[in-house]
Design goal:
By secondary structure, the chain is α+β, with helices and mostly antiparallel strands. About 30% of the residues lie in helices and about 15% in strands.
Length: about 290
Amino acid sequence: MRLSTWIRQHLAALRALLALTAITGIVYPLAVFAVAQLPGLHQKADGSLVEVNGTTVGSDLIGQSFTDSDGAALAQYFQSRPSVAGEGYDPMSTGASNLGPEDIVDTGSRKSLLTTVCTRSKEVGDREGIDGRRPYCTKDGVGAVLSVIGPRDVDGDVSRPVEVVSVNEACPARPFLDTYRGVWVECAEPGRDYSDGRIVPIHGDAPGNPAVPADAVTASGSGLDPHISPEYAAIQMARVAKARGVTEEQVRVLVDKHTAGRTLGFLGQPRVDVLRLNLELDQRHPYRG
């Protein structure tokens, strides 16, 4: 009697297992796949892929770099924002740097977030022929940060420093400041720890509203953002127009065409689709360099 009950229970369990396997492992996936093939959903379900003459060239959801084999920006293309996903726009390594505004001192193993931003801003400024200066950055594109060493008062301030070091400018570099509070500023000795000093970022004479927009020097949270701001697109138009032998107005027309407003009128920010813009530039104004 017990054996018969045991068999019935296990047969019921087996039937339930087979039924749920068929429903959740076969029927449900096939139903989802079938719905995804409906008109209007098929393209999105396949990854929002972008094709040109039958060749897949990218996705509307994932950005990409427009650089040569050495990583240098191609003059004829609008550049995307920086990416820290793998080697850049790697969908298998999506993520952010997780560095914050207090990451201002370079170490032997990596550059600080501040120096990274300063370096990018200088590079963009040089490439686009605009002022690449930013607050708290040196003219050479590193974080303008001092370690002020000396006795501290009750507030932690060093009123009479005995040594001042530009911690992000390794010797034999010439520091961005000659003196600070009457003390000569020294370059940083590689390998030496200056954390015992008071870390002081220096604003400098850069404009409070930099000409290089924030999305040109910072990566998105995913590292895959396919868009840039209209402000970043605007500073690139002269370069792209010159490289392609057309007027800025011709380029501006295409930029406006591929600029989307806020979602639902109030969510997010206006944005420019870099891939679609560059593809139409190739179609309408081919690069002949």
